[in-house]
Every structure is written in C-alpha cells, then in structure tokens.
Automatic annotation (TrEMBL):
Gene3D superfamilies: alpha/beta hydrolase. GO terms for molecular function: acyltransferase activity, transferring groups other than amino-acyl groups; serine-type carboxypeptidase activity. SUPFAM superfamilies: alpha/beta-Hydrolases. InterPro entries: AB_hydrolase_fold, Peptidase_S10. GO terms for biological process: proteolysis; secondary metabolic process. Belongs to the peptidase S10 family. It comes from Aegilops tauschii subsp. strangulata. This is Serine carboxypeptidase-like 19.
Amino acid sequence: GGLPQLVYNPLSWTKMASIIFLDSPVSSGFSYARDPKGCDDVGDYSSSLQVQRFLNKWFTDHPQYLSNPFYIGGDSYAGKVVPLIAQYVSEGIDKRQQPRINLKGYLVGNPMTDPKFDRNFQVQAAHGFGIISDQIYEAAMRNCKGDYINHVNQMCAEVLQTVKSVRFMYWPFCYELMVLQVPTPAG
C-alpha cells in the first residue's frame, strides 16, 4: 500500500535544466484527479488541452521560469500528443494569452505517429538495423508489394512470419515479458 516515493538522483538532468515531469493523461503514472470525473475524458485532444491548461497554471504560479526556453518532449505514444500540446501552446502565444510561454520546440523519441504507417515501416527498420537479411527484405518487398499489414498472399504471410520471429530479438514486446513462466515442479 501507500504512495510511491521519489528518490534523489545526484546525477539528474535537473543540474543543467529545469524539467517538469508530467504524466498524462490523468490517472497514468503519478497523475491523479481529485474528482473521478476528471478521468472521464482522456482522449488525445482533451488530454492535450488539459496539459496546456496545466502549463498555463504552472507558469502563472512560477513566473520566474517564463524566460527559460521551453521544450515539450515525450516518447512512444506521446508522438501523437506532444505535437498537439505544442500546437495548443503555440496558438496561445499567437493569441497573446498570458502567461506567455517561451516555447522553442518539441521532441519525440521513438514516436508512435500513425499505427498503419508505424507498423508498415517495421520491415524496412528491421532491414536497416541489420536484423533481417537482404534476402528476407527483398522477398518481403517482392511478395508483399509494400503492404506489410494486410497479407496480400501466402508468400507474403510466410516471409512476414520470418520477419516477426526475429524483429524483437533486441526489443521484445512488453506484454510478452509480463507473462511469468513458472516451472512445474518435477515429481
């Protein structure tokens, strides 16, 4: 039970920069809502607006940071929401809303952008990283005709099965790691 505790890290990035760590949408990570209704609308657009409102409130309460260059960053699924947050902050700047956040840009790491595009690019990425051979890559190109999601024929399905068997040798699916294999006692 109890709330998680923060741990001091003497080598933290905050020695060189001011960083706001924000878990979004509400109810993810350390974030919470005082009113359960705050968790009702957690779509990309609504949660991005919530972040923009949070930032406005935070900078209103901490005006000493307004002159600092401000970047918005995130990874994975945040590739869909970080640009929205940056857009909303930028629109506020254009409308001369206060506080005037000194937005300089945004960054996304290993971002999800469009599920179809992201999944369809995995064959090229696996080839580029040297995870699959030229022969497997060329067979995929030839048999799948650039569509690696909708298997257009049996040869495509077979070559994609080969790709799937090796593409996560460095990065296994998280849900595959969460399945605990408990050995059965002998006897």
